[in-house]
């Protein structure tokens, strides 16, 4: 199976932290995929889209070299690639189409629990293990600290205990991996999310049409994930107080309840979640039958 030049080509991580979210995103956009484990190129069944399933490290380069039209990758990998390519005289052009709401993590320095850390200066002349030598160098340069970079492509957290390095610079999300390896996070040097990027090459009108369909759908999915549909019954004479308690809500719909004059039904789309505390507050005002529902898709 080869890549068809007339179809929009998108590079995604084959397997790893971003792959499930990427597949869910495309599915949510109505792209029908037939992904078999071993297939590295997949054709969408109902839209002119081809997917290239690769290592995440290769995605920025594939976009910048124009091999694919779009790619989804972590900003950490993107920024690292830009710095590396600029330093080695390769083109590093692309545009960000959309910052996505998954793949959130930070690139941090960490040292062993017993290390007497007094700020970045404590790392002067020390060995730091990382998969992100350019991002690390930029930070250490900004701090005026010289260090030795030890390149590791994975399992970076093992380096201090293995005697390979004095500190590490790696991705952190919950911090569980650091804790499990007796490490303490000291400096956050970069915050990242997944982004949808586009090649700087001119795009055929037919491919642009597909992008123009996908972008509002992605926006609609993200907005829906951040929103809730709230329904409740409330006393007619406490309406304004009840409405004031609801978070980030538009003006609600008020409906009559059959055979009931003192209570009304309120329906509202809220741009935030409704926390237990707020629900308790609503209940204290006399509200009942409070339902909070997820929203699948939205279009304004
Ligand atoms: N713990 C985490 N929580 C959330 N997002 C993360 C986490 N770790 C990494 N990421 C994001 O997901 C991206 C991919 O992470 P992953 O660990 O799957 O990469 P990898 O092991 O380099 O995969 P590959 O085999 O594709 O090279 C990272 O570059 C980062 O943007
Ligand atoms: O702070 P935490 O929630 O523990 O997450 C951080 C870990 O997640 C990533 O690795 P991943 O588990 O994706 O494995 P990898 O080393 O194979 O990429 C990252 O490289 C850290 O090791
Ligand atoms: Mg990788």
Automatic annotation (TrEMBL):
InterPro entries: ATP-PRT_HisG_long, ATP_PRibTrfase_cat, ATP_PRibTrfase_CS, ATP_PRibTrfase_HisG, HisG_C, N-reg_PII-like_a/b, N-reg_PII/ATP_PRibTrfase_C. Keywords: Amino-acid biosynthesis, ATP-binding, Cytoplasm, Glycosyltransferase, Histidine biosynthesis, Magnesium, Metal-binding, Nucleotide-binding, Transferase. Its EC number is 2.4.2.17. Residues 55-220 form the ATP phosphoribosyltransferase catalytic domain. Transmembrane segments: none annotated. Feedback inhibited by histidine. The keyword Amino-acid biosynthesis applies. This is ATP phosphoribosyltransferase. It comes from Zobellella denitrificans. The gene is hisG.
């Amino acid at each position: 199976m080869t890549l068809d030049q007339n179809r929009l080509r998108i590079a995604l991580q084959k397997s790893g932290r971003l792959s499930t979210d990427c597949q869910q995103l495309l599915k949510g956009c109505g792209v029908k995929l037939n992904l078999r484990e071993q297939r590295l190129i997949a054709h969408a069944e109902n839209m002119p889209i081809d997917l290239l399933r690769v290592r995440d490290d290769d995605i920025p380069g594939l976009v910048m070299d124009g091999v694919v039209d779009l790619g989804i990758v972590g900003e950490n990998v993107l920024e690292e690639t830009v710095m590396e390519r600029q330093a080695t005289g390769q083109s590093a052009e692309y545009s960000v189409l959309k910052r996505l709401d998954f793949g959130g993590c930070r690139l941090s320095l960490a040292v062993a629990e017993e290390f007497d850390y007094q700020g970045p200066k404590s790392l002067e002349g020390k060995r730091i293990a990382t998969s992100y030598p350019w991002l690390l160098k930029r930070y250490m340069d900004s701090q005026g600290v010289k260090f030795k970079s030890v390149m590791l492509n994975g399992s970076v957290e093992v380096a201090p205990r293995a005697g390979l390095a004095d500190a590490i610079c790696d991705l952190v999300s919950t911090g569980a991996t650091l804790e499990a390896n007796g490490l303490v996070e000291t400096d956050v040097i970069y915050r990242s999310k997944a982004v949808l990027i586009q090649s700087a090459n001119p795009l055929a009108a037919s491919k642009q049409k597909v992008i123009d369909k996908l972008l509002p759908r992605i926006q609609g999915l993200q907005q829906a994930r951040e929103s809730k549909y709230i329904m409740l019954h409330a006393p007619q004479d406490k309406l304004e107080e009840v409405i004031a308690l609801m978070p980030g809500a538009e003006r609600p719909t008020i409906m009559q309840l059959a055979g009931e004059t003192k209570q009304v039904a309120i329906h509202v789309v809220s741009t935030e979640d409704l926390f237990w505390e707020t629900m308790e507050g609503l209940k204290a005002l006399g509200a009942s039958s409070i339902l909070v529902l997820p929203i699948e898709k939205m279009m304004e």
